[in-house]
Design brief:
3'-5' exonuclease activity (chains A, B), alpha+beta, nine-stranded antiparallel sheet, DNA Polymerase III, Chain A, domain 2, 378 residues, homodimer, transferase (chains A, B), 6 helices, eight-stranded antiparallel sheet, 3 domains, DNA_polIII_beta (chains A, B)
């Protein structure tokens, strides 16, 4: 194997596949990066067996030459050293060469590294996924769906299924739902041009977080395919494979109250920064609880009290308050996470009493829903 | 106590005094920030009893009003909450008011925090230092002296005196020396307009690191005063007091070889980045050892070998090599630290054999000296 590659391209591909590599893997060869040179380009692969990422650098693209003098072959290099070496090489191009005894030479300018490689034959094959059974969507839309839901997954391993995001595609509607049983985040978008349907697909939250980091906004579309136990996200340069979680995701639709007793419409950012301030004193307490109290027709009061430290009070003038008066306490952290996911200037919060879950949606957009269980404080 | 203050000014003063505050202090009131309002301005104080920092905000300066409606008084507020509160307040100005029962109210826009303060009378008095026995120097010069020496202090408590920087002022020359017994860094500058002399003043490395972070390049001069057990650095807005280390600093001048057998003149950055690359494979080994070998009259080779991982070789064309041929091994970390402190384009390295300490100085500047003990590798 041999090739000369643009260093910047190599750095960014290495960074992408590193997202899948864990130093704590039980399969030793997975601590390495697999490099494969083929006639038309170079592939890098990283995997921790839950997530596998392949990044492809075409030899030539849009009349720019990325890779030259390719001699086909493959090798696995230690992920502990290779990324830093590539980052610190002196010149814009890097020559990588590997002989039959798995010795790898990396040259750039006057610097020459000789590394011990591992046989690429020993690297596990990524499962081949049927990609004819797939649908496409814009990358920026998928990223925003992930951002609006994944924070609500459970971090506790007591109910493993809740550490994933429930992904469903039915009636040309793609929905993502996450809940840790104290709050729930959901987002729906229409997907046209597909006949595919699937249900109870649960993708680990960690996989979606890593995917979100490496999906490149500069690319337009991502192709998604689902099998029994894997989900594949594919773009022109990226092949991102994640295992699915086993088990049945709980039915969440019945948690969402259909009626409300109090409705508040308020500027999202104003409420967010007020709750953020109120949470400063609450952070010692369990769940960082703050309290919301309606005051007449267009004023709410946010308070927090931490006996040893002090208390904080702030009024917000809101667009409208409809229905019953209300005093309710909730976790400021959950509220801040949810308001950040709203992404619209104004939010409508619908309450059904101080002891029932309440929901938040942007004004004029039903596709985003955030639900929070209140905290009993008396 | 009451005043209304520009929030930006308050934030930057709070950040400065926070550098002295430790949550692990044995004196409970030192976990707080002392706020003192006087007719002409506000002082904030933080201390961990080793370092004390006072930041002063004048009510009016250069025709800008920083503080208004001052009613004199003082209070101590928990450093755990106060900085975040100030940072997140909604408006450009902040009103701080304190009643006789030590209740503090912080108002900004519609936000109101009520905090429990502590009696400022219980806060330890900073020692008053005789400032007529002081000398002045430019701030940027002091900062560069600290940067060029402080990294070489020992981090081991086995010889506590070596965790400090030895500061001497004799014959109108200020010198800073630091050594951990494996390397030594020293810098001298002339100080005119003073008759003061002192010796064996040892300032904790930690104090100088914190001082370096908060000294403001926008101010011009710093005034330095030394007593038996304290050193004071004073600018218009800052009062930075550090205790000195007890004990005698070792005589270091005899460590510095006076003759050399091999002299190499080389571009500082080129050598630095080459050694940085060579150290990538060496990091597993003790001390990150790399080897330098002269090759004829104007080439040196930097190599590193880590049997399990591989090896690296890089040649550098140098300005000149005088004297004997040389093969020498040393810690790449020490070398990188020293070269960063050189601050000149070209460096002269003087060796007296593979087993003796070697020294580095910038070309045409004797005021900076870096010394490193080589590593025996055979």
């Amino acid at each position: 194997m041999k090739f000369i590659i643009q260093r910047d391209q190599l750095i960014s591909s290495v960074q992408d596949v590193m997202k899948a590599i864990s130093s704590r893997t039980v399969i030793p060869i997975l601590t390495g990066i697999k490099i494969e040179a083929k006639k038309h380009g170079i592939s890098l692969t990283g995997s921790d067996s839950d997530i596998s990422i392949e990044s492809y650098i075409p030899a030539e693209e849009d009349d720019v030459v990325n890779v030259e003098q390719i001699e086909e072959g493959s090798i696995v290099l230690q992920a502990k050293y290779f990324p830093d070496i590539v980052k610190k090489l002196p010149e814009k191009t890097v020559e990588i060469e590997c002989d039959e005894s798995l010795k790898v030479t990396i040259r750039s300018g006057k610097a020459e590294f000789n590394l011990n490689g591992q046989d690429a034959e020993e690297y596990p094959q990524l499962p081949k996924i049927q990609t004819d059974n797939s649908f496409e969507m814009p990358i920026d839309l998928l990223k925003s769906m992930i951002k609006q839901t994944v924070f609500a997954v459970s971090t506790m391993e007591t109910r493993p299924i809740l550490t994933g995001v429930n992904v469903n595609l039915t009636n040309n509607t793609l929905s993502l739902v996450a809940t840790d049983s104290h709050r729930l985040a959901s987002r729906e978008v229409p997907i046209s041009d597909t006949n595919i349907e699937f249900k109870n697909v649960v993708v680990p939250g960690k996989s979606l977080n890593e995917l979100n980091k490496i999906l490149d906004d500069a690319e337009e579309k991502v192709e998604i395919s689902v099998t029994n136990n894997q989900i594949l996200f594919r773009t022109k340069h990226l092949y991102f494979l994640s295992r699915l979680l086993d088990g049945n995701y709980p039915e969440t639709s019945r948690l969402i109250p259909e009626q409300s007793k109090t409705k508040i419409q308020v500027k999202t950012k104003e409420l967010l920064s007020t709750i953020d301030r109120a949470s400063l004193l609450a952070r010692e307490e369990r769940n960082n609880v703050v309290r919301l109290t309606t005051q007449g027709d267009n004023l709410i009061e946010i308070t927090s009290n931490s006996p040893e430290v002090g208390n904080v009070t702030e009024d917000i003038t809101v667009h409208s308050i409809e229905g019953e008066e209300l005093k309710i306490s909730f976790s400021s952290k959950y509220m801040i996470d949810a308001l950040k996911a709203i992404e619209y200037d104004e939010v409508i919060i619908s309450f059904t009493g101080a002891m029932r879950p309440f929901i938040m949606r942007p004004v004029d957009d039903d596709s985003i829903l955030q639900l929070i269980l209140p905290v009993r404080t008396y």
